[in-house]
Write a structure and sequence with these properties.
The chain is mostly helical. It has helices at 2-65, 68-74, 82-99, 109-131, 139-152, 157-172.
């Protein structure tokens, strides 16, 4: 029986020391893993933040380029019929939009919704302006109608989208 007590006197402290060593090693390794994970997150931030900012910049540029005033001043309307000019404007908007489609990956869903709404609203203004003209109207007439219709709108959707994106940039960064 005495041998059992001697054995317990040795194994219990040895077990406690072993358990303590296990806890220390586990704590040390967890701290190391946390530091590595923090470093990886930090490195990702250094890479992703500039890309996200660039995406926001490209989308703001898209929104500026599709505003009716900028579209009309960029594309000459004097040589075209109203129907041809309508197609050119819509084609230009869709090309701009398709070129920047991948930027949605870096934006929130609500910001992207503002962008798509602005694009569709601009196309809608162009179409409704073209539909209000006579068949023989010139591109200049369409340009004037678009500018009148877009100026008459209380809500300028591309500008609203730009404002929302600026607010989101300030919130996120």
């Amino acid at each position: 029986m005495e041998m059992v007590y001697d054995l317990l006197k040795i194994t219990i402290p040895a077990g406690l020391v072993l358990y303590l060593a296990y806890l220390l090693v586990r704590s040390f390794l967890q701290k190391q893993l946390d530091e590595i994970a923090f470093g990886v997150r930090q490195k990702n931030q250094e890479i992703v933040v500039p890309i996200r900012l660039q995406a926001y910049e490209r989308i703001v540029l898209l929104l500026e380029r599709i505003t009716p005033a900028n579209l009309i001043s960029r594309l000459s309307s004097s040589d075209y019929s109203a129907e041809e000019f309508q197609q050119i404007l819509i084609h230009e908007i869709r090309n701009e939009f398709n070129h920047n489609l991948s930027q949605q990956v870096y934006m929130s869903d609500s910001a992207w919704t503002y962008v798509t709404t602005a694009v569709e609203q601009t196309i809608s203004v162009i179409n409704s302006s073209a539909n209000s003209l006579e068949k023989k109207a010139k591109g200049f007439d369409l340009a004037r109608a678009i500018l009148e219709n877009s100026a008459g709108e209380e809500m300028d959707t591309p500008k609203q989208a730009i404002r929302y994106i600026k607010e989101e940039i300030q919130d996120v960064f």
